[in-house]
């Protein structure tokens, strides 16, 4: 018994079953009959020596062993897709592909300069960048959808899974539209911030926890709060709805230089723990990903 008989198509089926939970839906997706898919699942369970899914009236639910194999199946599928794409790129004589993620803070004063250095020497390299919260980015690093990330390690993840190079610290700034009444004040007090409308990161995100703690400690009671992770929507709500928002200091400074917003001078900084360059420990990166990772590693010291 073992996984030697598993094929990539089998792994895709298992992932689809975990996501949809219905034999009929997945059978239609793969162009097979429902009985044929049921037989395939039984054969895979016999080969693995474990029950992978529990059968219920409401559908299929992965067992703990099933969750393990589905998690690894997603990694292998992602690696296979990357390999297929990189072969096409190599055949076209281009410079390879890299996928990495970043939180918003390093984008202005760390990621952009590193990319400038990379494209000066490797103009044809294909780079995909995901912007999101640290927990989402590191889930993608774990599943190998991303080669590495510039973020922080959330408390719920084991730091021993990763190689971590510290990059910088983060200070947050409260920003408003340039025509907001608070933009004319040289210093904004806690009383000024009370009963304002805000647009903030989603509940449960690391930055939202930091911001909520700041609001509680200073006795700030918002009039209303819109929660979103979308940076463009955040900007539109700040500019068009007179809401207060919170951005990382480098990003706030960039927007302020272009006359889009005003960064308020408030009593007390909103500081958060530092972020770093993170990759999965002992993962062997492709030549292109290794090149980009090394440029990022040296850029942090410039």
From TrEMBL:
Q: Which SUPFAM superfamilies match?
A: Periplasmic binding protein-like II, Winged helix' DNA-binding domain
Alphabetical list of Gene3D superfamilies matching this protein? 3.40.190.290, Winged helix-like DNA-binding domain superfamily/Winged helix DNA-binding domain (1.10.10.10)
- Name the family: Belongs to the LysR transcriptional regulatory family.
**GO molecular function terms listed in the Swiss-Prot or TrEMBL record:** DNA binding; DNA-binding transcription factor activity
InterPro entries in the record: HTH-type_LysR_regulators (IPR050950), LysR_HTH_N (IPR000847), LysR_subst-bd (IPR005119), WH-like_DNA-bd_sf (IPR036388), WH_DNA-bd_sf (IPR036390)
Source species taxonomy: Bacteria, Pseudomonadati, Pseudomonadota, Alphaproteobacteria, Hyphomicrobiales
Keywords for this protein: DNA-binding, Transcription, Transcription regulation
Source organism: Rhizobium altiplani
Name recorded for this polypeptide: Transcriptional regulator
